[in-house]
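[Discussion] Sanity-checking designs against the backbone

I'm trying to build intuition for which residues belong where. Below is a C-alpha cell string of 339 positions. I'd appreciate it if someone posts a full sequence so I can compare it with mine line by line.
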C-alpha cells in the first residue's frame, strides 16, 4: 500500500487507490489500476510514461470528465482540500452536480493536448475567454472583457486587444497554446493539470511555454500536475514524479532523486532511451512493446520486457515498496524496504 508523505494541512489533492475500468464488448480494460499520489499546495507533480499507460485518463477522472460512456470508477477516492476546513471526495459527486461544475475550470483547470482541437474555430478568442470567465464569475460582460485582456497579458501575448478579435486559425501554434493557458488560469485555479502542453511545438517555443507555466505557478502559488512522456519536460517544471506503466504507478520520487538514480527497470529504460543523452552510436530502446489493454497478465506487467525478471516477477505483481523516502514497485528492492 502506498504511503502519503504529506499531512492533510499540506495537501491540495489526494488520490488513493484509484481504479478506472472500461467495460467494452472486447473485455475489461483496466486503464487506471489502483494508483495513489498526492500533490501539495503550491507544489508540482509530473506523471510520466508511454502513450496508453493511463496518464490522461487519470487527469480526466480528476475532473470527472469521463472520456468514454463505458468508463467507470471502480474504486478509490480523490480528496480535494478546497479550503482550510473543507475536504471533498470528488468521486462521490455526480458528474452534472453544481459542486463539480463550480470546481471544474474554476478551482481545478486543465490544459488539453491539442489547442486547435480545444479552441472553437468559429468563435473569436475573446468570446471564448469571456464565456469561461462569465460562467465561473458572476460579472458583467465589460468586466469579463478586462479579465480576459489581463489573462492574455499574463501569458505574454502581444497586442491582446487585437488577439481578442482574432480566430484560432489566425494565430500560431505557440500562441494558441498560450491562449489555452490563459483560459485555464483566468479564474486563478488552485490546481492546473497540463496534459502534454508542448505537443507539436518546436523546441524554442516548448522552452518558452514551460518557463511560462513554471513562472505562473510560482506567481499564483498554484499546484501543478504535468502529464507527459518527455522526461526533459518533467525535469524542467516538477518537484515530484510518478512513473506510470499499464495503468499502475511503478515508481514515485522527487524529481532530483529520480534523475540522479532511477530505480525501476522501466524508468531506467526511459532514461536510456532519451535521444538527447546520446552523442554517438545506436540509440537504446526498451525491448518489446506495451501489452494490449485486453491482455490479462500475471505477475509484474513489465516482466516480459525486463532484463532482470525472475519467476517471482512473472507470477506475482509487486506492491509499491517504500525505500528511503521514495517508492518503487519491483521485487528487486523487496528486501530493502517495507511494503
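Best answer:
Here's mine. Compare freely.
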Amino acid at each position: 500500500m502506498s504511503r502519503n508523505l504529506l499531512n492533510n494541512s499540506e495537501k491540495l489533492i489526494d488520490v488513493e487507490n484509484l481504479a478506472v475500468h472500461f467495460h467494452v464488448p472486447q473485455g475489461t480494460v483496466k486503464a487506471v489500476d489502483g494508483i495513489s499520489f498526492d500533490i501539495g499546495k503550491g507544489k508540482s507533480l509530473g506523471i510520466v510514461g508511454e502513450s496508453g499507460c493511463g496518464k490522461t485518463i487519470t487527469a480526466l477522472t480528476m475532473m470527472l470528465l469521463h472520456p468514454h460512456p463505458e468508463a467507470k470508477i471502480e474504486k478509490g477516492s480523490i480528496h480535494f482540500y478546497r479550503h482550510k476546513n473543507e475536504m471533498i471526495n470528488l468521486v462521490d459527486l455526480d458528474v452534472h452536480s453544481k459542486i463539480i461544475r463550480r470546481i471544474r475550470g474554476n478551482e481545478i483547470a486543465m490544459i488539453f493536448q491539442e489547442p486547435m482541437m480545444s479552441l472553437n474555430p468559429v468563435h473569436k478568442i475573446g468570446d471564448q475567454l469571456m464565456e469561461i470567465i462569465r460562467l465561473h464569475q458572476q460579472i458583467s460582460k465589460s468586466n469579463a472583457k478586462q479579465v480576459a485582456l489581463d489573462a492574455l497579458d499574463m501569458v505574454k501575448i502581444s497586442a491582446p486587444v487585437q488577439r481578442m478579435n482574432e480566430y484560432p486559425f489566425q494565430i500560431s501554434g505557440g500562441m494558441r497554446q498560450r491562449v489555452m493557458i490563459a483560459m485555464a488560469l483566468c479564474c486563478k485555479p488552485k490546481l492546473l493539470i497540463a496534459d502534454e502542453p508542448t505537443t507539436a511545438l518546436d523546441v524554442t517555443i516548448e522552452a518558452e511555454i514551460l518557463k511560462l507555466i513554471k513562472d505562473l505557478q510560482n506567481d499564483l502559488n498554484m499546484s501543478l500536475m504535468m502529464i507527459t512522456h518527455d522526461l526533459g519536460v518533467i525535469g524542467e517544471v516538477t518537484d515530484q514524479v510518478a512513473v506510470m506503466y499499464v495503468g499502475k504507478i511503478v515508481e514515485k520520487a522527487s524529481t532530483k532523486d529520480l534523475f540522479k538514480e532511477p530505480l525501476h527497470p522501466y524508468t531506467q529504460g526511459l532514461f536510456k532511451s532519451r535521444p538527447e543523452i546520446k552523442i554517438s552510436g545506436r540509440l537504446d530502446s526498451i525491448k518489446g512493446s506495451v501489452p494490449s489493454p485486453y491482455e490479462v497478465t500475471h505477475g509484474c506487467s513489465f516482466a516480459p520486457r525486463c532484463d532482470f525478471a525472475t519467476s517471482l516477477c512473472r507470477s506475482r505483481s509487486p506492491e509499491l515498496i517504500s525505500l528511503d523516502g521514495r517508492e518503487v514497485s519491483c521485487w528487486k528492492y523487496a528486501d530493502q524496504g517495507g511494503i
